[in-house]
Design a protein that fits this description.
This protein has six helices and five strands, in the order βαβααβαβαβα. The protein is of the alpha/beta class. It has a single domain, classed as Rossmann fold (3-Layer(aba) Sandwich), CATH 3.40.50. A five-stranded parallel β-sheet has the order 3-2-1-4-5, sandwiched between helices. Helix 1 links the parallel strand 1 (3-10) and strand 2. The radius of gyration is 15 Å and the shape is globular. The model has no long low-confidence stretch (mean pLDDT 86).
Length: 164
């Protein structure tokens, strides 16, 4: 049985092939999927070189690579900024999901997919949401921090690891 709705969440700094793998896993466990870009207020820093609009564009370009059936499963791409209080952040995620899909009548039937421990714990503890970790695909190769370091060094091979 598939979940009726999955929320695939990440910063996507940049959207790399590990994210692609996790997205594909998400599409297998859910009938419908929304993608939420996190930390949308961040840009132009060492850990957050791209702004929200650039990251949203990355995600949308990757979605074009999906098969026709999978494309229909993805309902939209949204974004959420960071908040000092975890409770406010969790509420912002829920508001953004409902902006994209309409009123969610039963949050117990929604699964969040992500591999960040703070994100997952906040959504479980505060939001009462189910969380599914897709696992990390070839982490040693497809880790955002390593890819951003390659960029800073001028190592053009970082592009082979990403979808931008």
């Amino acid at each position: 049985m598939k979940f009726p709705l999955a929320v695939f969440i990440g910063r996507f700094q940049p959207f790399h092939k590990g994210h692609w793998w996790s997205l594909r896993q998400t599409l297998k466990i859910a009938e419908r999927v929304v993608v939420i870009v996190g930390s949308i207020q961040e840009q132009g820093t060492k850990d957050n070189p791209w702004g929200f609009e650039e990251r949203k564009k990355m995600v949308r370009s990757v979605l074009k690579k999906l098969g026709e059936k999978e494309k229909k499963q993805v309902l939209g791409v949204g974004g959420v900024k960071d908040y000092p209080r975890d409770e406010d952040w969790v509420e912002a995620v829920k508001v953004e999901v409902e902006r994209l899909v309409g009123k969610v009548s039963d949050w117990n039937r929604v699964v969040v997919v992500g591999n960040n421990s703070w994100t997952n714990e906040s959504l479980r503890r505060i939001g009462g949401l189910s969380v599914w970790e897709s696992g990390l695909y070839k982490r040693e190769r497809y880790e955002g921090r390593k890819i951003r370091e390659m960029m800073r060094r001028g190592d053009e091979r970082w592009k082979e690891r990403c979808y931008i």
